[in-house]
Amino acid sequence: MGYRPSISRLKILLQIVLVSIISFYGWQWLTFVDKYQHRQVANYPNVNRTIPILSTVKRHIRDTPRPVESFPFPIPLGGVGPDKPLYAGTNQYPFFCMSVDSQLGQPLVDNNAGLGVPIYQQAFAGNESHKIGYSKDCLIETTLHYYYQEKDGSFTRFNFDAPPEYEDVAKIDLGSELTPYIIRVETGSINRYLYMIAMPVSWPKSPERDSSQLWNKRLIYQFKGGSGIGFRQGKLRIRGLIEKRSAQLAQGYALVTSTANRTSYTYNMLLAEDTVARVKSQFVSLYGDPIYTVGVGGSGGGLAQYLIAQNRPGLIDAALPLYSYSDMVSQTIYGLDCELIEHYFSVTSLNRSKWSDWNLRRSILGVNTKQGHIHRYAWLQPINQLAAGVWPEYPQGNSECQNGWFGLTSLIHNPRQSYLRSYFSKAVRQQVHWSYWEDMVGFFGRDKSGHANTTWDNRGVQYGLNALINREISPDEFLDLNRQIGGWKPQNEMAPEKLYTVFGPQKKPLWMSLWSRHNITAPDPNTGVAPRTKASLKAIKSAYRSGQIFIGNINIPVLDIRHYLEPELNMHHVSASFEARQRIINWKGNRDNQVIWVAHPDFDPQKEAFKAMDNWMMNLLSSPERTAANSRPTAIQDRCIDANGDTIAQGPTVWDGKWNARKQGKCHQTYPMFSTSRIQAGGPWQGSVFICHRIPIKQAIASGIYGDIDMTKHLHTLGKIFPDGVCDYTKGDKGRPLDLMPRIKN
Description:
By secondary structure, the protein is of the alpha/beta class. Helix content is 27%, strand content 13%. It contains 23 helices and 22 strands. The strands form 6 sheets. The protein has a 12-stranded mixed beta sheet, with helices on both faces. Strands 1-2 form a two-stranded antiparallel sheet. A two-stranded antiparallel sheet has the order 5-6. α4 crosses α5 (300-311). The longest helix is centred in the first third of the chain and has 21 residues, at 7-27. The radius of gyration is 27 Å and the shape is globular. It starts with 6 loop residues before the first helix and ends in a 19-residue tail after the last strand.
């Protein structure tokens, strides 16, 4: 079907052509201007990343003993923490130091060979004539800082030379009398990342480290989220962390964290675990064992708790994951589908007008969509359509894929697209493969081209299968979708994004390769079918064994909390909590140690959650024979919460729905959940099939995969699209080691 141009459309077309010409010729020279020349890494050690402990993993890393700590904790004040992990492998380079960004001063000089960031005499930062060396490992001295809360609730650095007036400091109740709200903060480096220990203390007369009389013996380990691909130390936001946990610090909790435990900087969960163990060693060597350690953190900071609790029991005793996913590797499965599908809707579909119905798009994408909700980068679509040779149309809707996962492919999957370019010199940028897979290369290994292996595969995936079965799309539309959608080019064939901007790389660039379309496989001229992508079985098996995938083996108390953000098309969708739940059920046979709360965005249940978790932990610790499941107070149940903090419904069935094939419960009705592209393709809700087992087309038809839709007349076309068969999800994940198969099938 074609489009008949109108006068108004021709005007739009001329405007787009004009903008495109100006953009290409007028802006191209300003693409990616280096703004931080004085901060860039000039060189870096050529190190082959290895993780020796993986050679001893026979089943799962949970069952592999960790080595005895070799570093002599505690790190003394003025001293320096370990520069290499205990068991998480060799250091990654390049590695950009961020202690200056964290207002903790320059790192220590560790070489004069030009490796890492330049270090200057303190008073001459950036002055080449006053350079005193380089730092490749970003170590800093261990230091104490103090903050006090003012009466307006803000926190201010405590100055011993000019201390605040006693009456100007806010007071907290930690005993028989009110106490000035003062926080002592220790900072330093462990495993090259920046760590922090904070706890409330009495009024300090001088910097001193030992006081802990206001500590309530409970420890919070703060995790944080974000999408990161490694190669940098991370920024430690001290005041922000104190403010975030102010309510708990005011109750006497101690707080610890590290930039290694923020997924903006790495998703390497073995390194994250190694760092948690060492930060806790520093804390315990100074103040003794806490009665329990509770993890808290959102998004990537939530999945880190699931994985660390699974992989090394005892590091955290309870988990408060917020907006969590099960793990990062699993999210790439449908996350990397997003731009393939959106590209099909907007460019290659034979009937693009059909996809102007954004509710219909949801039947393919799975995630939520909204008609009339316009994405802030919507203006890029007609420009890119024109460049692709199709008639431009301004989108009249939005989806979670666009709103939440926009640009994920180029960030984590494209080795030639570095969003960290402002930190590194051009010479370094050209040598490194900038991707999530490269950050994980110690686990996944390399292919013959020298690129990191990947776990992403879409062979045999029948996109839109559920929409076909439900008669939302026709067989011809189903076939067109699967013929055209394609996959991602091999890592060594991918090219950088075509981005142009006059305002810096963060200011609405003109993206001339929207959907990363130049890295999508094109239809074969002979078959008319776009090739799919093949994953590495070796990488997937290693991801399972090394604990990068959540398999559900978790036994601590878990209170999984999130706001209901689906109307905002936020990527932190409700179904992710039930993805984790399904894996727990499949592994253990029950989910009694996991409780899920979903709240209206106007109410924050965290304060109540800490109190509930404390009750749960006190029950658990009171009787050694108890488990996390049978020590859970009856008041702590699945629930949904309204804007005023009132419970809408609670109990074991309130979240029943499609995910467990039951009648919808009250909470599910109040806060509907959506799915993903792979669930819409017939996959399981647990969302962890990396490579599906495939069966021949005739067998698929005979088994009823297509419901009551007669696909026998399309055998030839299906055979061309799926020459090796289609996914049979009843057989689980082909890449999962047999000894780690779930005990209960979904």
